[in-house]
Each structure stands twice: as C-alpha cells, then as structure tokens.
C-alpha cells in the first residue's frame, strides 16, 4: 500500500518533489530545532493519484486519520473536542512555489464542544467568535465555493458582548454564517471535525487544477503533472490579543536587496490578514518595540536560516502570546534589482558562485537594463501637478498605459497589443489573468507583502500598492484622489520603485539606473566564463553601445546593413528587372556593401567583425526580399553559392570597406546554409580571387544537420564556423523560423500540450548529440560559435556551455543576459 503521509519529524527535507516546498521547509526547520507547530504532510502522490482517477485515495484519508491521532498525542490536545482543543491549518504545498494560487483553510476542527473548550482555555469569548467566523467563511469559500462573506456576520461580531458564554457566541456566529450559506448555495459546513478535515484535504488537492493555478503554471512554464502536497499543521493563534500577531519576514529586502530584515506584522491577526491586502500592516521593525523578546528570536532565527540555506528567504510566522512560531520558509521572490544586489553581496560575502547566482536569472538581468522614464518628463509632470498619488513601490519598473479596472478588460486590450495599467482596490487570485496582461498594477490597499505585491514581483511587473488616498471604484471605472478623477481609458504612468502614479504618458529615457551594479556583476561573470561574446550591429552608432556593454567582437549581416541604409530595395529591384545577373548588378552590390559597411568597420577599429552574406531564402526576410517572385526569376539565389558573382561582389565590397576603414584585422564573410566541403573550398577560392584576397577571411553558418555533421571538413577550408541555432531548432521541429521571433502563437501551442518541449529554449536528444560533436570536430585553430537570435535563457546557455561552446553572438540587448547566463553556467559543478 502506498504511504501517503510523512510527519514533520520523519520526512526527508530534500524530497521537495514528494513533500512540496512548504512541507520540505517545515520538515527542515523542525529537524533543525526551530519552533514549528507539529504536523504532517500528505505527499504529492495523493494529488497525482487524484489527477489520474478523479478521487482522493481512500487509504490516504485513512492514513490521515491515523496521523491525526498521533498529532493529538504529540500536542496533548483533542481534535474537535476538549479539554484542550486541537485546531488545524490545511494548506497546499506545491514542489515549485505558487504564492497565493491554491487554497488554504485555517481553524479547522471547530465544533461547538471545541469552541466551548477554546473559550475556557483562552479566556476570550471574542476570540472564539472570531475563529468561528474565520473558519466557517474560509471553509464555505474554499470547499463549497461561496462567493461573499455575510455583512450581518461582521456586524454581529462587532456587537458581541465579550461576557457571553463561548458556546452561545459560537451558536450565534455559526448560525448567521450557516443561514447565509444556505441562502446562497443551499449547502452547509460540516459540524463533525473529521468530516471537515476530509473535505478540506479534497478541496486543497482539487485547487491544483483551478483556473488561476493552471494560468500561473502556464505563465511560469511549470508542469501540470507535479501535483501538490497538503500540509496539515496544529494551529497557533496570532489573533489572541495585542501580545499576538502574524507576519511575513524576508531575510533581505526583496525590493532593493538591502541586507536588512524586511517584512510586515499585524497584531491580533491570523496569517491571511497580512497577505490579503484588506489591511495595512506595520513594518516588521515595529515588533521590536511591541514584543522585544519574540523579535530578537525572529532576527536570530532568520539569520540562521539564511546561513543554512544560502539564499534569501520568505518566512511566515505567528506570535502567540509572545511566543514565536514559524509556519513556512521558502526562497524569496525578489525584484530583478534586488536579485542583482543580492548576488553581488553574496559574492562579496564569500558565498560560492553557484549559490550566489542561483537567485538571479538572465530574464531579470534583461529587465533591470530596460529603459526608464525621461527625467525631464518626470520633473515636468510633478511641476504640472500630474502626480496623482503615491503608494508603496512593490515591484520596480516604469511603465505607461491605459487605465483599466477589470482583469478581463486588461486581458482583452493586451491581446490587441494595447499597454494597460490595472487598478484594483485589492487584487485576488481571480485577477491573475489581468495581472499577467497588464504592464503595471496599482492597488488602493495592502502592503509590500500583499497578493498584488508578491504576484507582481513574481511576474516582474511594475506595481504600486497601498495608495491610501486613492478611491478605486471598479464599478464606476474611476480612480479618485481629492478632486482628481481618472477614468477607464485615461493614460497614466506608474513607477514601481518610487510608488508614484502620474496622469498622462511619460516619455522613455535611458537605460536603468541599476546598470552599474549589473555591470559590476557581469565583470565577475566574464572572469568565470572565459567566453567570447559577439554583438549584432547594423549601424556605426551600435558599435560603441556594443563595446560599452562588453562585446568582444561584432557580427552583422549584409541584408540588415543594406536594408538600414536603403540599398536593399534597390538591389531587389535590380534583380527583379533582369533575367540574368551580370557584371552591372554585381558592381551595384559591391558598391553598396563597401559604402554601407565602411563606417561600421571604421567604428569597430580592430575588433573582430564577422559579416553574414546575403541570404535570399531567409524566412525572416521573405516579404522584404519578395522571395516568391525573386526566386522564380532567379532560382539559383536559393543556393549558398548559386550565383558566384554575387558572393564575389560581397567579398570585394567587404575588402574595400576594410581598406577604407584602415583595418589590419581582416573581417570575415560567412555564408549561410553551407554543408559540403566543396562549397567551403569554392568560397575560399572566391575570396582568393579578389584583389588582395587576404583582406577577407571566410566562414559558414550551419543551418542543417549536414552542416553540423561535416564541421571538420568545412573548417579545414574556412576560417570561421557559426552554428545558426534558431534555424537549426526550427528545422528540427519542422516549424518556420519566424515563429521563434515572437511569443505567440508558439507559446500557446506549447502550453496547450501539443509539443513536449519548447523548441526555442530546449535542446533534446538527437540535436544535442549533433551539437556535442561540433566542438571536438572543428579543425585545429577554429573555435566554433553559436548565433543566438532569440532571447537568452539560463537553461539554453547552460546546455550550450556544457556542450563546450565558448563563443556566442547575440543582439545588443541580449549581451548582458548572455554574459550573466554564461557566468552562472561556469559556476555550476561539472
């Protein structure tokens, strides 16, 4: 029989796949002596069985009842009864953190008998009434699907006489909740504690497949097959009074990366109150004055946990009558800016690079380097009184867009490529699809650990929360501050760092202000990786930008350069107007190449420059080149060396450009689609035939399996060899390369499950084997390179680095992400 249960005491903290992240974290903390309420984990195997059969395994529920009896013995409390009642929290715990996406039920096991005993133990009838309301509403929402809590219940709680008997208070609040639920759904919350537990376990397991959870996994490329664990834990109560409370702590600031304890705390509350956004909590430092002893424990344990895990941590805790308890620990979501600062600090503190860089991604490096608002525009907006409100900057980024108030509107407009800013009083998991679609998010309530803040940081979306002076009315479609009223469709600009919201669109300025920190980090990454990194340039102005960003060499393409200078249209027109390609067309091409490339080569100085020859069958240029009629007239243009006169013209033009630029290092002309040693020899002979043939080296871009297989023979005749990875990966799955240039429709196709891999970022079996042979098979003195013409990802670069590649070429905007990803790959153990 499958064992579905692990207690906190006997679980394996390294088995995250089985225990989930939350369960593994609790097991680790309790085994390291931290104050954690006891409990047990229902493993992900139960969830996967549910996915297979549609039911929770009966033996799982039987084992849970056995574990519950052991938990009663451990705590000395009784589930659902007295004299000391045991209440439980039942929470989801996926192997990969999905904050706020799945369900939780607190205070489970509350019966009338337990409520009476709880009142006697705590001495607080109001506490019993509050727990009764919380449990009934949460169970009704999570398990039964109730939509809204009853206002009548809240009013009754406010009016409750604290001297009334706890049992009577329970009857009053439970009765009102039950009536509201009956009116809405004709359902009822079980009064039997074991039935409550079984219902909660099923609901948490089912929450793995809710729309919001599936949407989150699809956005973050998380497998739907992992399943969730269920964490069942003895309750501790932060809502017992002013010496109690709940909070969220980060071992370092997740917004800025500052090495300080950061977070929020709400007295007389339970954990859901802190993160719901319905309340504005206090800074965590305020606990030091209110509750100095538990704060000292918190600071000490947080430092200890960070040392143990060598990562910045997100910790949920409760203080019950001045005693600290930990309820969760996980790797902290952090802004890209914070991730850069933290990685630098960890390196400076002597952490191994493998650990220091683990919390930062190439995508985050890319985001830090993105453009910001023009400073003059920001000053003008302030001077003109267009600063509408200032809240808490929860996730950096400076963005402009049209104001919307409903998640569905954000999604609809974003699908039409309209940038939008989503404004909500608070956000909830039901808003996720709109939050993903929005360029920025603003809320009226909540703090830096609210739902909006945490999800925005995970998405990398600019976000401002806690705009206390703003009245956001989704029904009316208005955001009002004093006499200023912004309406749906109005243009606004949002600064997720400063927390400012401006009326109107602000212009974009220069690159991000954190680039100095990024570049400091990238200097370390270059040392670790020892790679050559080439940047794609088209204009002379690009060259200095590439050099400043760390490029060791440059790549360009004749079709790009000619298009940018207006010569490509003329060439295509000339080719279309002639049935044969003669000396006049070749001369026109030679002159155009010399004219367009001379300024680029002059700006490059003695940097290595690799120039790709015209590719008349390039998928990305098919419309510009009028491929169908052009190749009908001149089918030989489809072949790498099909029209030798044009190859010779490009070689001659490049040689003239190099001479005019005064270069001593010869540039390279590399031809796409070369796959045979005879083609390589012919290319070398063409180069030797031009005036001063030594002024241009030659090479090839491999775009086929044959081009990879014959690398040794090709490099025996030529100087340079590039792997055109996008074209190879596209050909491998039989898709047009142009689909690799945009998220849609390939994202949706992969997410729909039609492909078992994302071909833009994953290299599997046969392709991996083909690439693996390239590095070792190259002729002596030839260092193969990889042209990455799509966004860099950590996994893709790591794969290529481990295959032995040490030369890469990317677009300028991808230089920083690539450099970081290479350093991260180099830091990993072999």
TrEMBL record:
Entries under InterPro entries matching the protein: ATP_grasp_subdomain_1 (IPR013815), PEP-util_enz_mobile_dom (IPR008279), PEP_util_AS (IPR018274), Phosphohistidine_dom_sf (IPR036637), PPDK_AMP/ATP-bd (IPR002192), Pyruvate_phosphate_dikinase (IPR010121), Pyrv/PenolPyrv_kinase-like_dom (IPR015813)
Molecular function GO terms recorded: ATP binding; kinase activity; pyruvate, phosphate dikinase activity
Keyword Membrane appears in the UniProt entry: no
Superkingdom assignment: Bacteria
UniProt cross-references to SUPFAM superfamilies, sorted A to Z: Glutathione synthetase ATP-binding domain-like (SSF56059), Phosphoenolpyruvate/pyruvate domain (SSF51621), Phosphohistidine domain (SSF52009)
Domain Pyruvate phosphate dikinase AMP/ATP-binding: 56-284
Domain PEP-utilising enzyme mobile as annotated: residue spans: 418-499
Keywords noted in UniProt: Kinase, Pyruvate, Transferase
UniProt keyword Signal present: no
Coiled-coil intervals, chain numbering: none
Any Pfam family the entry gives: PEP-utilizers
Protein name in UniProt: Pyruvate,orthophosphate dikinase
Organism encoding this protein: Ornithinicoccus hortensis
């Amino acid at each position: 029989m499958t064992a579905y249960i692990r207690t906190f005491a006997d679980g394996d903290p390294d088995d995250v796949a089985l225990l989930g992240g939350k369960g593994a974290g609790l097991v680790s903390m309790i085994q390291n002596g931290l104050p954690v309420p006891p409990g047990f984990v229902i493993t992900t195997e139960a969830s996967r069985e549910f996915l297979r059969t549609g039911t929770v395994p009966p033996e799982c529920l039987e084992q849970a009842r056995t574990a519950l009896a052991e938990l009663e013995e451990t705590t000395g409390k009784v589930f659902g009864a007295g004299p000391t009642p045991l209440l439980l929290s039942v929470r989801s715990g996926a192997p990969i953190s999905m904050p706020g996406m799945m369900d939780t039920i607190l205070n489970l096991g509350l019966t009338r008998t337990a409520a009476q005993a709880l009142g006697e133990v705590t001495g607080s009838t109001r506490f019993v009434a509050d727990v009764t309301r919380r449990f009934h509403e949460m169970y009704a929402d999570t398990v039964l699907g109730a939509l809204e809590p009853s206002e009548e219940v809240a009013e009754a709680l406010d009016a409750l006489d604290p001297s009334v008997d706890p049992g009577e208070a329970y009857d009053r609040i439970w009765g009102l909740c039950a009536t509201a639920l009956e009116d809405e759904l004709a359902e009822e919350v079980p009064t039997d504690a074991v039935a409550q537990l079984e219902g909660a376990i099923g609901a948490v397991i089912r929450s793995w497949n809710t729309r919001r959870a599936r949407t989150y996994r699809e956005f973050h490329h998380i497998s739907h097959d992992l399943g969730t664990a269920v964490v069942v834990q003895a309750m501790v109560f932060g809502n017992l009074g002013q010496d109690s409370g709940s909070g969220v702590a980060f071992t370092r600031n997740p917004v800025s990366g500052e090495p300080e304890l950061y977070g929020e705390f709400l007295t007389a509350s339970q954990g859901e109150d802190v993160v719901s956004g319905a309340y504005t909590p206090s800074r965590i430092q305020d606990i030091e004055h209110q509750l100095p002893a538990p704060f000292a424990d918190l600071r000490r344990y947080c430092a200890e946990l960070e040392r143990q895990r060598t990562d910045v941590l997100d910790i949920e805790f409760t203080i019950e009558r001045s005693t600290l308890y930990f309820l969760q620990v996980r790797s902290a979501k952090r802004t890209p800016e914070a991730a850069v600062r933290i990685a630098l600090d960890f390196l400076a503190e002597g952490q191994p690079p493998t650990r220091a860089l683990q919390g930062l991604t190439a995508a985050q490096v890319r985001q830090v380097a993105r453009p910001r608002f023009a400073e003059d525009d920001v000053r003008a907006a302030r001077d003109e009184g267009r600063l509408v409100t200032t809240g808490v900057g929860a996730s950096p980024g400076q963005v402009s867009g049209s104001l919307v108030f409903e998640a569905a509107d954000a999604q609809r407009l974003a699908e039409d490529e309209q940038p939008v800013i989503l404004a909500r009083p608070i956000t909830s998991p039901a808003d996720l699809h709109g939050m993903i679609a929005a360029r920025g998010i603003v809320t009226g309530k909540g703090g830096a650990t609210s739902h909006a803040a945490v999800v925005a940081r995970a998405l990398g979306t600019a976000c401002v929360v806690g705009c206390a002076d703003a009245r956001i009315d989704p029904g009316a479609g208005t955001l009002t501050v004093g006499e200023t009223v912004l309406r749906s469709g109005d243009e606004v600009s949002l600064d997720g760092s400063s927390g400012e919201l401006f009326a109107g669109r602000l212009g974009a300025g220069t690159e991000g202000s954190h680039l100095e920190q990024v570049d400091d980090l990238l200097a370390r990454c270059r040392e670790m990786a020892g790679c050559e990194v080439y940047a794609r340039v088209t204009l002379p102005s690009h060259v200095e930008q590439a050099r400043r960003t760390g490029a060791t060499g440059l790549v360009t393409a004749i079709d790009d350069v000619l298009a940018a200078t207006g010569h490509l249209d003329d060439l295509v027109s000339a080719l279309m107007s002639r049935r044969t390609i003669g000396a006049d067309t070749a001369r026109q091409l030679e002159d155009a190449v010399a004219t367009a490339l001379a300024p680029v080569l002059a700006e490059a100085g003695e940097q290595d420059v690799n120039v790709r020859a015209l590719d008349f069958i390039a998928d990305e240029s098919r419309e510009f080149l009028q491929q169908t009629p052009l190749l009908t007239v001149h089918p030989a243009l489809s072949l790498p060396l099909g029209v030798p006169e044009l190859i010779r013209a490009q070689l001659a033009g490049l040689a003239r450009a190099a001479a005019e630029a005064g270069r001593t290092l010869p540039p390279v002309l590399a031809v796409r689609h070369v796959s045979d040693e005879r083609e390589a020899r012919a290319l070398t002979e063409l180069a030797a035939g031009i005036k001063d043939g030594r002024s241009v080296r030659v090479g090839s871009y491999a775009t086929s399996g044959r081009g990879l297989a014959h690398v040794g023979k090709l490099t025996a005749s030529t100087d340079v060899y590039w792997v055109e990875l996008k074209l190879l990966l596209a050909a491998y799955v039989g898709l047009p390369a142009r689909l690799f240039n945009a998220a849609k429709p390939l994202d949706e196709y992969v997410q729909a499950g039609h492909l078992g891999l994302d071909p833009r970022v994953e290299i599997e079996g046969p392709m991996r084997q083909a690439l693996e042979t390239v590095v070792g098979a190259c002729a002596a003195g030839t260092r193969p390179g990889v042209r990455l013409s799509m966004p860099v990802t950590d996994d893709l670069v790591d794969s290529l680095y481990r295959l032995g590649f040490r030369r890469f070429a990317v677009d300028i905007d991808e230089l920083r992400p690539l450099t970081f990803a290479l350093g991260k790959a180099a830091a990993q153990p072999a």
